[in-house]
């Protein structure tokens, strides 16, 4: 136990990860999304693709627990369940491609996908068709695939919900619930495929502390009347992370 703690505290890049999860937690707390978009580009620059996902999966399961009661009250759990059913289909396919990808290509993929999603969010692109049960499961499957290959499960769901007329609190609640359950599924798939390693999992548990504190602060700051301001802050942090994660800086 002492050895694994020493390895965690001496992990190269740990300071960067701590700073990143604080900002990721802050954004997650006041807009309900953005963790992977902020964390993954930086994590992919300091460790391997699989380790980066294990670290994020670890803190993203335990870190948001304090935020879930409000998300459950504000959200629509029955609708979220359809998204999760879709994720069950797409996620294992994404994990398969993850195991085949080159680390440098993974960094390019994460940063480019992050920037693409940021552009779509900032330009106001929205899903316009009716949001029936089939579409919810399809969108969930796309999110599941992106979770498996790059831990970016949120953007498809976020882009969908932001086109709806639901209140910001409902969108935030649904998104947070979906992301939590996808992390549980991702953990199960990694476990079944023998991809889990102890050290990145413990690093993630360690990062859950600053992530939770950032999330609680963000939740305390959350005010539906200031939604536009929060989104602008989130977009700025996502852009910085994506640009810093590009392999051109190595």
| Structural class by sheet pairing and helices | mainly alpha
The percent range for strand residues is: under 5%
Number of domains: 1
Residue stretches low in confidence (pLDDT < 50, at least 5 long) are none
State the total count of DSSP E strands: 0
Helix fraction, binned, reads: over 70%
* Run of helices and strands: HHHHHHHHHHHH
What kind of sheet is the major sheet?
none
Mean pLDDT: 86
Please compute the radius of gyration using only Cα atoms: 17 Å
Contiguous helical run count: 12
End-to-end C-alpha gap: 33 Å
Tertiary shape: globular
List keywords for this structure.
250 residues; globular
SSE layout:
Layout: H1 2-9, H2 14-31, H3 35-46, H4 49-62, H5 68-74, H6 77-100, H7 103-122, H8 133-150, H9 154-161, H10 168-192, H11 198-221, H12 227-244
Briefly summarize what is shown.
It contains 12 helices and no strands. With 250 residues, it is mainly alpha-helical.
Would you mind describing this structure in some detail?
With 250 residues, the chain is an all-alpha fold. The chain has one domain (2-249). It is built from 12 helices and no strands. Helix 3 (35-46) packs parallel to helix 12 (227-244). The radius of gyration is 17 Å and the shape is globular.
């Amino acid at each position: 136990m002492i050895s694994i703690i020493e390895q965690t505290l001496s992990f190269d890049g740990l300071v960067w990860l701590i700073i990143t999860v604080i900002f990721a937690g802050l954004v997650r707390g006041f807009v309900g999304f953005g963790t992977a978009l902020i964390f993954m580009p930086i994590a992919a620059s300091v460790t391997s693709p699989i380790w980066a996902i294990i670290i994020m999966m670890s803190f993203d399961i335990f870190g948001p627990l304090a935020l879930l009661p409000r998300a459950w009250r504000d959200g629509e759990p029955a609708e979220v369940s359809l998204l999760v059913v879709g994720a069950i289909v797409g996620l294992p396919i994404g994990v398969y491609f993850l195991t085949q990808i080159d680390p440098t290509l993974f960094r390019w993929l994460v940063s480019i996908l992050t920037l693409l999603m940021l552009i779509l969010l900032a330009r106001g692109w929205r899903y316009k068709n009716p949001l029936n049960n089939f579409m919810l499961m399809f969108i969930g499957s796309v999110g599941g695939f992106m979770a498996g290959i790059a831990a970016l499960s949120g953007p498809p769901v976020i882009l969908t919900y932001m086109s709806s007329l639901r209140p910001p609190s409902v969108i935030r609640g649904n998104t947070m619930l979906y992301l939590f359950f996808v992390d549980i599924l991702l953990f199960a798939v990694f476990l079944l495929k023998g991809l889990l390693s102890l050290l990145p999992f413990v690093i993630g548990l360690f990062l859950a502390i600053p992530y939770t504190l950032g999330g609680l602060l963000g939740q305390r700051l959350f005010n539906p009347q200031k939604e536009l301001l929060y989104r602008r802050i989130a977009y700025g942090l996502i852009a910085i992370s994506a640009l810093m994660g590009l392999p051109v800086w190595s």
